[in-house]
Amino acid sequence: MKKTVLFIHSAGPQGQGQGSSNLSSYLSKQLGDNYQFVSPEMPEPENPAYVSWKKQLEKELNKLTGEIILVGHSLGGSVLLKYLTEQSSNLVFSGLFIIASPFWGLDEKWQSKEFTLQPNFEHKLPGIPSLFLYHSADEDIVPFTHHKAYAEKLPQATARELEGKQHLFDQGLPILVQDIKGL
């Protein structure tokens, strides 16, 4: 049975060549037919609200069975972490991959009560055997300090500190593909 990869995209426009679209296409192509790749369109990505994203995420998860790999890019990673630490699920998650995600509430620019994780969220994360964090050291959309904050709260995670300024990873993210295939 194929493993399912559920990819939750970033905020902002998601048309061809925008937002997470290039990264999603790259990942789907690189994983190939050995994986079922699911990349739903999340509601109003240019004006996202956690409640509507949560409902869409639940709808997508309810369609899935078997071993599931979760991948969240930027806001999508924040949403996955919030959902997993606030909701229960009977699904089997074999991996969680968080890419360039904001740590809401970390600093003045990144304030959003609806996306902020609960205190001690790290203790509420279900037992997912493989957790990876990816972030470019010099990116200028989500500061690298957010990656460091997640890495500190989630010491069990493999933290991938990437060179460069990538946030959208328009040319792909080979290490992500390698890590998913390594599960």
UniProtKB/TrEMBL annotation:
One Gene Ontology term of the molecular function aspect: hydrolase activity
Pfam families in UniProt: Ser_hydrolase
Q: Which domain of life is it from?
A: Bacteria
Q: Which InterPro entries match?
A: AB_hydrolase_fold (IPR029058), RBBP9/YdeN (IPR010662)
Annotated signal sequence is none
The name on file for this protein is: Serine hydrolase family protein
Biological source species:
Sediminibacillus albus
The organism that produces this protein has a lineage beginning with: Bacteria, Bacillati, Bacillota, Bacilli, Bacillales
